[in-house]
Amino acid sequence: MRIPVDRKSSVPLYRQIEAxxxxxxxxxxxxxxxRLPATRQMASDLGVNRxxxxxxxxxxxxxxxxFPRTGSGTYVQQPAPLAPIPRREPGAPWPLWQQEIxxxxxxxxxxxxxxxxxxxxxxxxxxxxxxxxxxxxxxxxEYRKVLQAVMRRDGAAAxxxxxxxxxxxxxxxxxxxxxSQGIPAHPDNVLxxxxxxxxxxxxxxxxxxxxDAVVVESPTYSLVLDLLLSLGLKIVGVPADEAGxxxxxxxxxxxxxxxxxxxxxxxFSNPTGACLSLARRRRLLALADRYNxxxxxxxxxGDLRYGGRALPALKALDPGGGVIYxxxxxxxxxxxxxxxxxxxxxxxxxxxxxxxxxxxxxxxxLHQRALESYVTVGxxxxxxxxxxxxxxxxxxxxxxxxxxxxxxxxRMDPPQGGLxxxxxxxxxxxxxxxxxxxxxxGVAFAPGGAFFPSGADGESFLRLNFAGHPPETIDQGVQRxxxxxxxxxLQAERSASRLNGARGRTP
Length: 507
Ligand SMILES: Cc1ncc(COP(=O)(O)O)c(C=O)c1O
What we know:
Arc Repressor Mutant, subunit A, Aspartate Aminotransferase, domain 1, Aspartate Aminotransferase, domain 2
């Protein structure tokens, strides 16, 4: 009999065996009169002591779930009729299905850099690890007025589920915004979602099955990597450089892995800030078409541009039906709205509308209406212009601070837009080791490992969110980071010279 036992668990082994058998007996998977393996046999099967099994059997016998037959063995007893379950005491073992999650590695979230920073207890912490813009710039008061006006205007209608695809006037507005960017979208091809994360999740779940391969640029957005892993997908990373995914390497990977999807962030990538060049955009589309692979284009901050020339979206270059485009109001306006959207055509669009409905019924009708009102009266465009102006200054402040405070060996290409800058550390420094040191000095960042399909590739990198802080804070934070890097370098030099000294003494 196979019983999963977790030797690292705080629950004693006999309790784990007992809980497993108890559940199987009560649920009927082990029928009454079934003979259990002899304790010696069971102990050898599970690699545990015989007494452990005897204890488990004894507990179940005491509860009337097993009975011994002299000279024959231990048998399953007909369970008594269902009795009320006693309340679980704090510290008592979880129900078996919870223990199974625990022993499968669970879903324990990794420690966040922001938590490390808080735990370090610095009096004036500076957090560069976040993923959104500056909340002090959110137009909270204006939005409050818009919400009130919408409630006055629409009353109870604003509180219904609303249309499956999303609020029609907002879909029209989005179609207009997309058209102004050269993306030919009809409101009937737009699906409003709870942020673009939901749009990405729906697309992935609809198009892929466990074990399927998906192509991403490496590095890429960490929560998409986590999503793909959680769904049991095979992640195929294509290295990226300052012009985005190295599409030249893609064809071979398509032939080898037969992926079912290509996920890409062509504008101001998270984490690198890089933009996919026009030549690569065209080649990517041609390859995806030749190998019949859909492209999922994540344009999460496309409008936050501080320099350079806007390149056409993949969706704008798509001859039709090949690209699924997702974007969001989270970064350009406020993440707490939870409004993002997807633009796609054909049978896929019909399927994803239905799939979203069975997942969540609808996206908040009230917020869609308020957002539509906010965008239509021109406030959104004004907010965007203001954000670009402020974030450009912060990007410049970061560029200067990096030159002023970090060792020359630290490399950074100033991004032309978005929220993030990507730094490469000198070869001997790991961003994972740097982080706790930096937190002690009062600054946090996102270490590079989380953004690579294979975490080890990211050791030399870190991501800084420059959009979240005013220039003076950026300067101070980078100065602290420089201090942490210098400390690590000094420690490395000291231990190298100790090692050399010790070598000198060996005969
Ligand atoms: C690249 C990228 N795509 C999508 C998202 C999801 O954002 P939201 O669900 O708030 O639209 C994020 C959030 O950080 C992101 O960085």
